[in-house]
Specification:
The structure is a single chain. By secondary structure, the protein is of the alpha+beta class. The protein contains 4 helices and 5 strands; from the N terminus they run ββαβαβαβα. The radius of gyration is 19 Å and the shape is elongated.
Length: 144
């Protein structure tokens, strides 16, 4: 495992773990490394100090921060937004475009939903007047 300090085109800075340096390179080339704050894939490695683990932690050392802790106000706001969306809407996964279109046409009851769709499907929904908006985070759930 390797940790990189990263920054996006909007100058948001964050750290992320990767299986290896080559795994980072593959994910980055595929556009799958995205900013933890704004979601852009315009991300590059930032300057970072090396971390040398010279042995077991000594008593009294402070524990390393958890990767799931929200450090910045932006990360905290993003987490709060995600929590609200997950609490007050239904995750429909890959069926998002179909569900949104069915609700818009009156074939399904209207409700708050979120999920995943391809860019071309999202564009078609917008062109057809279906009210949709991108979320600034990727889903963590993968089941319908």
């Amino acid at each position: 495992m390797i940790s990189y300090s990263l920054k996006c085109a909007q100058d948001h800075r964050f750290d992320s773990w990767f299986q290896s340096a080559s795994a980072f390179d593959k994910l980055h080339a595929a556009g799958l490394v995205t900013c933890a704050v704004c979601g852009t894939s315009e991300v590059e490695k930032d300057l970072m100090a090396p971390r040398v683990n010279a042995g077991a932690d000594k008593p009294g050392d402070s524990p390393a921060p958890s990767l799931s802790d929200s450090a910045s106000p932006e990360e905290q706001a993003l987490k709060a937004l995600r929590d609200e969306i997950e609490k007050h809407s239904d995750y429909v996964g890959k069926d998002f475009a179909r569900e949104a279109r069915a609700m818009h046409s009156g074939d399904a009851p209207k409700r708050a939903i979120w999920g995943e769709t391809r860019g071309d499907e999202a564009r078609k929904l917008i062109e057809d007047g279906v009210p949709v908006a991108p979320l600034p985070f990727r889903p963590t759930r993968r089941s319908n």
